[in-house]
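subagent[fold] <- orchestrator: predict structure for attached chain, return C-alpha cells only, no commentary.
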Amino acid sequence: MASTREAPEMSSSPTSGEVLLEYLRRQVAELQQQVPRVRKNEPDSVHQMRMSARRLRAVIESARSMLGPGSGQAGNGSPDLSLSELRSELKWLSGVLGKARDPEVIRERLAALVAEEADALLLGPAAERIDQALEAVARGARAEVQEALGSDRYRLLVQALDALTDGPFVGDKAERPAGKGLAKLVKKDVRRLRRKAAALEQPKSGEADSDPNSDRGPRDVALHDVRKAAKRVRYIAEAASIAKAKSADRVEDAAHTIQKILGQHQDSVVTREHLLQLGSKSGRGPKSEADSAFTFGRLHALEERRADEAEKEFFKAWKAFP
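subagent[fold] -> orchestrator:
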C-alpha cells in the first residue's frame, strides 16, 4: 500500500508549498513504514505511527490555507475527502493507535511507582491485578489496531494522503518564499497557544493540592488543550525549520518542552482513571482483592502529586516560552 513514487527534490529557494509538501511526504512515508512493525507488535511501533498521524493532522490544520483551493478540497488529491474530512480520518487513526499505546504508558508509570513503594504498603495482589487488567486492555486494543489497518477505511485514508502529497500546492500563499510564509504560520499557531495558556490562571502557592475534593476535571481538560496547542506549534515549527524559517528551531524546542511536561500531566490523568476502575472492582471482590484497594488508592494519591508537580513545572517553563 505504500507509495512507490519518487518525490522531486526541492528547489534551492523553495516556496512554502514545496516545503510543506516535503514535510507531509516524509510523514506519510513514516506512517506506512511503521505498518509492518505494528502488525508484528514491535516495540514503540504504535507510538511512532501515532506520532506520524498526529504530525500530519496538525500540519494539515495549520497550513490548510496553503494546501488546497478555497473549496477546502485536498489540493490535487481525492475529490472524496476534504481537508476537514482528512483531518477527521487522521484523528480516528490516532485514536485507535492511542488505545493500544495508553496501556503501555500506564504500565510503565505504575511499575515505577510500585517499585518505589515499601512492601508494607503494597497490600493484596495489586501489582498482579494491574498487569492482568492492562494486558487485557492492550490485547483488545491491539486487535482493534490490526482490524483498522486492514480496513477499507485505512486504505482510503492512505489513498487520500498520497493524493494530497502528489502536489504541487498552488496559490499566492503556497507560492511565497518558504522562510517568510512558514514563519507566519508558526506565529499564528503561537498566538493560538498563548490564548489557550492565558485562560489558565496559575494556582497560588499550595493551592493546587490543597483541596482533595475539588473538581479537577475542567482544569485537566484546559491543561490538555494547552498541550494539544503546543504540539501543533511544535509540528508546524518542525516543518518551518526545513526552510530555516526565523526562530523556528527555538520555537520548536520550547513547544516540545511544554508538550512533554503536560504530557506527563495527561498521562497522570489517564492513569488515575484506570486506578479508580481497579479500586472500585477490588472493593467488590474477595478479601485479598479488597486489600488491594488500599494500594490502588495510595497509587492514585501519588499520581495526583505527580500531576500537581507537572502543572507547576509547566508554569515555570511557560515563563521562558519565546
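orchestrator: received. Logging for downstream: The chain has two domains: 16-117+126-164, 178-197+217-318. The chain has ten helices and no strands.
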